[in-house]
Amino acid sequence: MKFDTRTLILMAAAVVINIIGGQIAHFLKLPLYLDSIGTILVAILAGPLAGGITGLVTNLVWGLILNPVAAAFAPVALVIGVVAGLLARAGWFRTWWQATISGAIVAVPSTIVAVPIIVYMFGGVTGGGPDFAAAYLLAVGQSLVQSVAFSNLGINIADKAVTALIAWIVASRLPLRLTSNFGFFEHSRV
Amino acid sequence: MASGSKQEAGKQSLLFTPGESLLHKANPLTSLVIMLWMISAAAVLPTAGTAILVLAAITVSMATGVGKRSVKRLLITMTPIGVALIVVHGLLIERPDQTDLGLVAISPDGLDYALKVFMRVAAMLMATLLFVTTTHPSEMLKALDQRGVPPGVGYLVASPLLLIEPFSDRAKAIRDAQRVRGLDLTGSWKARIIALPILLMPLITLALSDLDQRASILSGRAFRAFPRRTVINAPHDSTFQVWFRRILVAVAVLQLGIPLLWHF
C-alpha cells in the first residue's frame, strides 16, 4: 500500500512526537513511557497500517540514533499502532473515555508481544521500573513469565490509557483543514 | 557559522562519532551486515563465545576511536540489566541447587544463566553500538537510496532523523523556560503530572503545525515522481565489500539454521 504525501509527513512527524514524548516522560521521572502518542495519533487519523508502520519506524530510528535496545521492541510498537487503528475503525476513539479504554485495551496485545522479548532475549529484565514489580511478584511465588507479564501489563495499561487520551485530545483539537484530508478520521468523529 | 556549530552539536548528540577508521570508511551496508552477523552469532554462541565477542567488539571500538562512547553506553545500559539479572535469577527464582547463606539463598545455576543472558545482550548491544557509532544515519540512507529504496520510505526514516535534534533542543528550551517561570518538574507526582501537558502540548502542536505546508512543498518538488532516487555522492562500495557481505549473510543464516536443524 502506498501512502499519500500528507500521510507520510504525518507519520514522520509522529515518529518525532513519539521520541520527544518518551524523553519528556524521562525528564519528569514519570513511571510511564509515553512513547506511542504519535503512533496512536496516526492510527486515529490514518488507520492501522499507517499506525503500525509509524510505531515500527519509531523504534528502529530510536535504536539507530539513541538507544539500540529500543529496536528490539519494534514489533511491540507495530502492534500498538495496528490495534489502535483497528479500535479507531470500530469507533472506539470518539470520546475521551472511549479513547482511555482503547488505550487500556491496546496494552494487552502489546504486553503479549513484549513478554517473550523480555523473557527470552533479556532474561525477564529490562533494567527499568517494571523490574521492581517483577522481582516482587517472583518473591511471592509467581513464575518468571507471570511476573514479567503482570508487572508490564500494569504499567502498560496506565501508560497506554494516558497515551491514548493525549492522542485523542490532540486529534480532536486539530484544525478541520488538516483532518479533512484524512478520511479515516471519520470513524472517530462524534 | 551558527548553523555549522548547531550541526556539530546535533551530530554530537547522535551516537555517531566521526572518524577515519576502516569501519567509518566501509559502505554502510557492509557495517550493517557485520552487525547482523554479530547479532546472529550472539544468539547461538555459548557464554564463553559471547564474552569473546564482547571483548573483540570493545577492542575494535577502541581501535576505531569510538571506544569511549560505546563502552560508556554499554555500561549505562548493561549495569541495571546485570543487577536485575543477578537478583532475579541468582536470588529470587527457586532452583534445586540453591545454597542458603542466611539472609539470602543463592543459586549457582541461576547465576550461570544470568551471566549467559548478560553476555548475549551485551554482545548484541556492542554489535549495534559498533554500527551506530561508526555509521552516520544520513550515509546509511544514501546507501539505501543507492539500492533503490522508494523515496517515501527514505523520507519516513530521514525526516525524523533531521527533526529529532531541533525538537530535543526545543523540548529542553521549553523545560528550562518553564522552570524559570516556577514550574515544578522535580516535586510531587501531582506537580509532575501537571507539568506534563505544559511541556508536551507545545511540541506536539509544533510538530503538526506545518503538515500542509510541508506536503505542498514536497508535492511541488514532485519528490515521488520517480520510483528511485539518484544519489549524487553515494557511499563508496567495492566488489570485495559486496562479496564480503554475501559471505557474512550466508554465514549468519548457516549459524542460525544449523543449530535449529540439529535441534529437530
UniProtKB/TrEMBL annotation, chain A:
Gene3D superfamilies: 1.10.1760.20. The keyword Transmembrane helix applies. It comes from the Bacteria. Keywords: Membrane, Transmembrane, Transmembrane helix. The chain crosses the membrane at residues 7-28, 40-62, 69-90, 96-122, 134-155. This is Energy-coupling factor transport system substrate-specific component. It comes from Kaistia soli DSM 19436.
UniProtKB/TrEMBL annotation, chain B:
The chain crosses the membrane at residues 34-62, 74-93, 113-132, 243-262. It is a multi-pass membrane protein. InterPro entries: ABC/ECF_trnsptr_transmembrane. CDD domains: EcfT. It is found in: Membrane. It comes from the Bacteria. Keywords: Membrane, Transmembrane, Transmembrane helix. GO terms for cellular component: plasma membrane. Belongs to the CbiQ family. PANTHER family: PROTEIN ABCI12, CHLOROPLASTIC (PTHR33514). This is Energy-coupling factor transport system permease protein. It comes from Kaistia soli DSM 19436.
